[in-house]
């Protein structure tokens, strides 16, 4: 998704949730500053990781059962909290898309084992950026939901799962399989507001549906 196509959606999300563009951009500047010496890869390098078939793993409660005993072929993309479930089952994703919540240690371990990590900045995760961002020692892409620049990318998307989907579509992938996605029943994470989570899932479903 091009930024020009994403920005009207982003403005609607800001209005719907009462979020601040200024806070999003402050967190984005923080991420960029902290990661200037990280192994930041180009769009071309990220595109090379993507095969014709992409599987995106979401963090629904059903994920463990959906992957049990199965083998997967294609580019494996983990959406945030799904990473710990994959790693616990011996699956190292090729790409992790995260705003640094959930079990971040598993995401850091995936980075050490070769995963490309798309680290996302938004107005609510500045503390997480300070705590975790520099621990990702593998290849990274820095993303924002506001205006991109020479280091910060914006492929579209709001939650980890639909950002992963938007990224794959941005690079021309049409064969995208979703595993562990449940847009109707939000899973509880420590401190999470299930009402807000449910609202975010509706947006994620809307964004993904618009690109299919």
Draw up the topology in text.
Elements: H1 3-17, H2 21-34, E1 39-40, H3 43-49, E2 53-57, H4 63-67, E3 75-79, H5 82-88, E4 95-98, H6 104-112, E5 116-121, H7 126-132, E6 139-144, E7 152-153, H8 160-170, E8 175-179, H9 194-211
Parallel strand pairs: 1-6, 2-3, 2-8, 3-4, 4-5, 5-6, 6-7
What characteristics describe this protein?
single chain; globular; 8-stranded parallel β-sheet; alpha/beta; 212 residues; 9 helices; 17% strand
Describe the structure.
It contains 9 helices and 8 strands. With 212 residues, it is α/β, with parallel strands linked by helices. The chain has one domain. Strands 1, 2, 3, 4, 5, 6, 7 and 8 form an 8-stranded parallel sheet that branches. The chain is globular. The chain starts with a helix and ends with a helix. The mean pLDDT is 95.
In short:
The protein has 212 residues and is an alpha/beta fold. The chain is built from nine helices and eight strands.
- Helical amount: 40-55%
Q: What is the number of helical segments per DSSP (H or I, 4+ residues)?
A: 9
| Major sheet | 8 strands, parallel
Poorly predicted runs are none
Radius of gyration: 16 Å
Distance between the termini: 12 Å
Number of domains: 1
């Amino acid at each position: 998704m091009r930024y020009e196509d994403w920005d009207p959606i982003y403005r609607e999300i800001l209005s719907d949730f009462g979020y601040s563009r200024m806070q999003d951009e402050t967190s984005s500047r923080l991420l960029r500053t902290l990661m200037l010496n990280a192994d930041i890869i180009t769009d071309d390098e990220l595109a090379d990781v993507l095969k014709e078939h992409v599987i995106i793993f979401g963090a629904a409660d059903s994920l463990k059962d959906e992957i049990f005993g199965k083998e997967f072929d294609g580019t494996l993309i983990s959406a945030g909290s799904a990473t710990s479930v994959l790693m616990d089952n011996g699956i190292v994703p090729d790409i992790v898309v995260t705003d640094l919540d959930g079990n971040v240690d598993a995401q850091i371990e995936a980075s050490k084992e070769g995963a490309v990590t798309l680290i996302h900045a938004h107005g609510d995760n500045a503390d997480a950026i300070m705590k975790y961002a520099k621990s990702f020692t593998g290849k990274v892409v820095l993303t924002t939901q506001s205006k991109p620049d020479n280091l910060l990318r914006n492929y579209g998307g709001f939650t980890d799962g639909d950002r992963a989907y938007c990224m794959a579509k941005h690079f021309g992938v049409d064969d995208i399989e979703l595993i562990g996605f449940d847009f109707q029943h939000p899973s509880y994470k420590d401190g999470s507001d299930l009402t807000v989570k449910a609202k975010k899932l509706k947006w994620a479903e809307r964004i993904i549906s618009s690109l299919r």
